[in-house]
Amino acid sequence: MKVIKGKQSIEFEKPPYLLSWASVVAQKEGEGPLGDFFDQVIDDPFFGEKTWEMAEGRFMKQAAMLAIQKAGLTKNEIRYAFAGDLLEQNTATSYGLKDLELPMFGLFGACSTAGESLSLASITVAGGFAEHVLAAASSHIGSAEKQFRFPLEYGNQRPLSATWTVTGSGGFIVSKKKSPIKIRGITTGKIVDYGMKDPMNMGACMAPAAAQVIYQHFEDYSMAPKDYDAIYTGDLGEVGKDILIRLLNENGYDISKVHGDCGLEIYENETQDTHSGGSGCACSAVVLASMLTRKLINGEWKRILFVPTGALMSKTSFNEGESVTGIAHAVLLEKEET
After folding, report:
1. If residue 284 lies in a helix (H) or strand (E), which one and from where to where?
2. Do 303 and 206 fall into the same domain?
3. N or C: which end of the chain has fewer CB within 10 A?
4. Domain count of the chain?
């Protein structure tokens, strides 16, 4: 089996495994359709801290510790951590993981960070550079809105295209040790710029990048939508989902029967008033660590493509009138045959 596959993909000769996973969310996420599936729901959005940023770090720390515990490991057995958030200088990640004292690579892939961290962790384990690696991502409605848009205290009007940033964190242990879920391969995304400039319409900004990486994954693996039980994007929401399906249809692939979006799963949009759905680094991470892994474990699904999506913007680039580019990373997960 060739490790390098096509233009943007890797298929691991000795696949690493998802040994464990953990999801920690806030009250609003716990009140959504997946509330019973999360490992822990924290009623206090500050998680006992004084600031939104410190609270987000606490969510990540909790998810990481739970994932390590569920794997039956100690923190000293984790060789590396790949983790990131939406904030400047990876503030939440630094606060959250400093006490674990792990060798760490801080990542920024915007809301695609869960896919980026899992991809790099998988390469590290499959390459023989570590036995156990932590991959994690977090976000928080309070810290994200304050940095990128308006502090929550402003009470500003949100357009219908806007998404709600998920408060929480997902943590994963990628390992050589065999488990029911293997990581067969990855497809690394490219930065895609369609000239979108609306930070309140992240779905439209990210959908072209999702379409590009999913198309290239099909081409690299010589596979088609029918070969998957599910293809889940990160947080395109209602607006981005429609754009994604149309773009792939134009390029010969109809994913409408197998496509789902984590941002559309985590909230009940009408009753929870989230408009287009959920977003943030934690969105795809906690949905994977709750619903998606559950369906693989119980045999309902045997193969899924997990495609977290990110909008690569900063408050500086937005204020200077630059477009919001997108990126997405695909992780191919399969149930291990016994």
Report:
1. helix 281-287
2. yes
3. C
4. 2
Position 275 pLDDT exceeds 70:
no
Note whether 10 and 156 are same-domain residues.
yes
The residue from 128, 158, 175 where one domain ends is 175
Say which residue, 40 or 161, is predicted with more confidence. Answer: 40
Q: What are the DSSP calls for 150-198, one per residue?
A: --GGG-----TT--EEPPEEEEEEEESS--SEEEEEEE----B------
- Domain stops at, among 132, 153, 175: 175
List the one residue out of 258, 230, 234 whose CA is nearest residue 307.
234
pLDDT in tens, 192-220: 998 877 766 777 889 999 999 999 999 99
CA angle 302–308–312, rounded 5-degree value: 165
Residue 69 DSSP code: H
**What is the Cα–Cα distance from 150 to 223, expressed in whole angstroms?**
43
CB 315 within 8 A of CB 179: no
Same domain for 86 and 226, yes or no, is no
* Cβ atoms of 138 and 171 closer than 8 Å: no
Q: Are residues 287 and 189 in the same domain?
A: yes
Q: Which residue, 69, 63, 66, is CA-closest to 83?
A: 63
Domain span at residue 168 reads 4-175
- What tens digit of pLDDT does each residue of 48-100 get? 999 989 999 999 999 999 999 999 999 999 999 999 999 888 999 999 999 99
Q: Are 160 and 253 within one domain?
A: no
- As given in the structure block, the two tokens for residue 31 are 């009140």
